[in-house]
UniProtKB/TrEMBL annotation:
InterPro entries: EamA_dom, EmrE-like. Keywords: Membrane, Transmembrane, Transmembrane helix. It comes from Maricaulis maris (strain MCS10). Pfam families: EamA. Residues 9-132, 146-279 form the EamA domain. The keyword Mitochondrion does not apply. One of its GO terms (cellular component) is membrane. The keyword Cell membrane does not apply. This is EamA domain-containing protein. The chain crosses the membrane at residues 6-26, 33-52, 64-83, 90-111, 117-135, 147-168, 174-195, 216-233, 264-281.
Length: 282
């Protein structure tokens, strides 16, 4: 393995870990809606000055950006609801794992992309693992509401993935498109948090500001490291490596949040990640 490939591999592993930590910080937040609003708002404030000196995208691109902004707002609300409902090591693998599978199906239907037999096998393994997560626990409780919220959030991720893939193709300017994506994410979820919390927003925000700033750093890290890896190594294996965030996130939830994470969930998380690897590399 040459130095460039080795650095790209390390960068993608760092991206997976950063995504898992970012999600852990969201789960730990006392008020997850305010936390998400502040995190995305800080990102918007950081990126907007740079964007103002870049070419303004044409309306053909804004159609995708505005549609994606509605979808990412829905994702944030569903993420908050899922994490308020139950354990991260159940919600996160389903949210993270179902999204690529759904995105692959959506790309096949709406963008005309082909799906190989290997990818179908990966899709089957990932789907089976997701069904396993939804299966009732030993106490007989299926945690249906949590699973449905996580799947709904995953469907939003799959939707904005397909929307943004189409938008970037029309734009031809990846970083400008990604910058406006972050800004629009902030200007949708932060006002929602302010409206929902009313007069208590400022007092809650003071408690959540420091962890939100930390989360912003991990948010930038997970995207920045992933872009570096994609620019310096084959995309498919790098995308597959990023799916390790599923296992890392579940393990962090068990170690830091002391959530239950028995052998069944460990096996399901590994199978889910393996299915997504097949989906990416075959």
């Amino acid at each position: 393995m040459d130095n460039t490939l080795a650095l790209a591999t390390l960068a993608m592993l760092g991206s997976a870990l950063a995504h898992a930590v970012m999600t852990l910080l969201t789960k730990k937040a006392t008020d997850k809606l305010v936390f998400r609003g502040l995190t995305q708002g800080f990102l918007a404030v950081l990126i907007l000055p740079w964007l103002l000196f870049q070419p303004i995208p044409p309306w053909e691109v804004w159609r995708f950006l505005l549609t994606g902004a509605v979808v990412i707002w829905a994702f944030n609300m569903l993420l908050v609801a899922a994490f308020n409902e139950g354990e991260m090591n159940l919600a996160y693998p389903v949210m993270r794992g179902a999204a690529p599978a759904l995105a692959a199906l959506a790309a096949f239907v709406f963008l005309g992309e082909t799906v190989s037999l290997g990818q179908l096998a990966g899709l089957g393994v990932a789907t089976a693992a997701l069904i396993g997560f939804a299966w009732p626990e030993r106490d007989g409780k299926p945690k249906l509401k949590l699973i449905l919220l996580a799947l709904a959030a995953a469907s939003m991720t799959a939707s904005y993935t397909v929307i943004d893939a189409a938008g970037v193709r029309v734009s031809g300017q990846l970083f400008i498109y990604l910058g406006w994506f972050f800004v629009l994410s902030g200007v949708t979820i932060l006002p929602t948090a302010i409206f929902r919390r009313g007069t208590s927003f400022l007092s809650i925000a003071r408690q959540e500001t420091r962890p939100a700033l930390m989360c912003m750093g991990f948010n930038l890290a997970t995207y920045g490291l992933a872009l570096y890896a994609y620019a310096n190594a084959p995309v498919a294996p790098m995308a597959a490596l990023r799916e390790l965030s599923i296992v890392l996130g579940a393990l962090l939830a068990a170690l830091v949040l002391k959530e239950p994470f028995g052998g069944r969930r460990i096996l399901l998380a590994i199978c889910l990640a393996a299915g997504l690897v097949l989906l990416q590399v075959m």
